[in-house]
Amino acid sequence: MRILLVEDDDRIADPLAEDLRHQSHAVDIAYDGVAGWEFSQAASYDVILLDWMLPKLDGIQLCQRLRQSGCQAYILLLTAKDATGDKVLGLDAGADDYLVKPFEVDELTARLRALSRRQPIYQSVVLTHGEIELNPTTHSSTYAGIPLELTAKEYMLLEYFLQHPTQVISRTSLLDKLWEFDRISGEQTIKTHLTNLRRKFKQAGCQYDLIETVYGVGYRLRDVSQSR
Question: In this chain, where does the modification 4-aspartylphosphate occur (predicted)?
Fold first, then answer.
């Protein structure tokens, strides 16, 4: 699963994220509520692990904003508040589950498995651009109806481009948004993933580069209306 962890205490956030990554989850970390909101707008997540007491924007406010914006991710609140009234407040704000600190990672991962078995509550918006379709709910993508077999990073790159179809996206932005937890990957790794993504489009029948290089700036999706 792709997980956003919003937690201001790095003594909790960093080891928890590492544990989840060892379980093959992709994890981004935001250390305050505003950063959590920005991450949620830049990518689609399956689950958001959300601390209650956050700087800039607290967890309840962020949870409400996420639901008002149509966020489809499951939200699991992580907090030391254990009163029944606090739990009711969190669930009424839009959270799907509630876990009291301190907690064992085994219990958290069990709750993640339980959430993954639920029927999705929110309708997912299929992202399209020309012949490309990407469905965040099923984590599938096609070109001209032909399934694309993408790695996790290739999928994340394509999703990010489709969420910003008219923008030139800098290499720094790609590193910040998609390699937040692995900065040592560097620009060469981005180029490798983009090369593989372009190759898979061509294998599906695309006759031109759908992802253009804007030299000295970054990358963007090609205007398909000018490619016919």
Answer: 51
* This prediction's pTM: 0.54
CA angle 175, 191, 195 (to 5 degrees): 135
Residue pair 191/181 in contact by the 8 Å Cβ criterion: no
CB 44 within 8 A of CB 73: yes
Q: How far apart are CA 136 and CA 43, in angstroms?
A: 10
* Number of residues that this document lists for the chain: 228
Topology of domain 2-116 in CATH is Rossmann fold (3.40.50)
Domain 127-226 maps to which CATH number in 3.40.190.10, 1.10.10.10, 1.10.3660.10, 3.40.50.720?
A: 1.10.10.10
Cis peptide before 102 (omega within 30 of 0): yes
How many CA within 13 A on the CB side of residue 123? 2
Please, what is the end-to-end C-alpha distance for the chain in angstroms? 37
Instruction: Characterize the bridge pairing of strands 97-100 and 74-79.
Output: parallel
Average pLDDT per block of 10 residues along the chain, 228 residues long: 89 90 87 90 86 90 85 86 81 85 87 75 70 83 92 84 85 70 61 91 92 90 72
Closest CA to 79 of 52, 43, 40, 48: 52
Side chain identity at residue 168, one-letter code = V
